[in-house]
Amino acid sequence: MSHWLAIDHGTKRLGLAVGDTTSQVATPVKVLKATPADAALEEILCLARQYHSDGIVVGWPINMDDSEGPQAKAARSLAKELADISELEVRLWDERLSSFQADSYMAGKLTRKKRRARQDAVAAAVILEDFLTHDGPNSAPTPDGKPED
């Protein structure tokens, strides 16, 4: 069994969730401010240690035509930085429509203000569950573009 921390990357907020390969269930953890970047990275690594994570998966918002736009490049950059400063496995995972799915899960359950506050963490859980159920630990690309051997 391996534990993973997922990040839904945004310019203002980072949603985080945790889960493991055995249960393939992800739980939203929290939402962080994306800036200052050093503080966000430090908190991500602290949470990874707290949840005994073996790896980090970063949501990768590639375009519908599979090209990498500015947001996808920013997510890749975050993933590279995490790989450089930690000894954890770091992977990218296609997150297309994860925010839409997160909104669908929360519809009618929370006030709009509470939904907005939790959306990024729930989106991270959506990304992580998809990653875990589709063998992401063994098939997802690393930040340098290589799938795991």
Question: What's this model, at a glance?
Answer:
By secondary structure, this protein is an alpha/beta fold.
Structural class: alpha/beta
**Biggest beta sheet summary:** 5 strands, mixed
Shape: globular
How does CATH name the architecture?
A: 2-Layer Sandwich
- As residue ranges, the low-confidence spans are none
Number of distinct beta strands: 5
Here the CATH topology equals: Nucleotidyltransferase, domain 5
Assigned CATH class: Alpha Beta
User: Could you say how many structural domains there are in total?
Assistant: 1
The end-to-end span amounts to 18 Å
Radius of gyration, in angstroms, nearest whole number: 14 Å
Percent range for β-strand residues: 15-25%
What letter string, H or E per element, gives the SSE order? Answer: EEEHEHEHHH
The spatial strand order of the largest sheet comes to 3-2-1-4-5
What is the mean pLDDT?
86
Q: Number of helical runs?
A: 5
User: At the fourth CATH level, what is the homologous superfamily?
Assistant: YqgF/RNase H-like domain
Percent of residues in helices:
40-55%
Describe this structure as you would to a colleague:
- With about 150 residues, the chain is α/β, with parallel strands linked by helices.
- The protein has a single domain, classed as Nucleotidyltransferase, domain 5 (2-Layer Sandwich), CATH 3.30.420.
- Helices cover about 45% and strands about 25% of the residues.
- It has five helices and five strands.
- The chain has helices at about 35-50, 70-85, 100-105, 110-135, 135-140, and strands at about 5-10, 15-20, 25-35, 55-60, 90-95.
- The protein has a five-stranded mixed sheet with strand order 3-2-1-4-5, sandwiched between helices.
- A hairpin with a 3-residue loop joins strand 1 and strand 2 (about 15-20).
- Helix 3 packs across helix 4 (about 110-135).
- It is globular and about 35 Å long.
- The model has no long low-confidence stretch (mean pLDDT about 85).
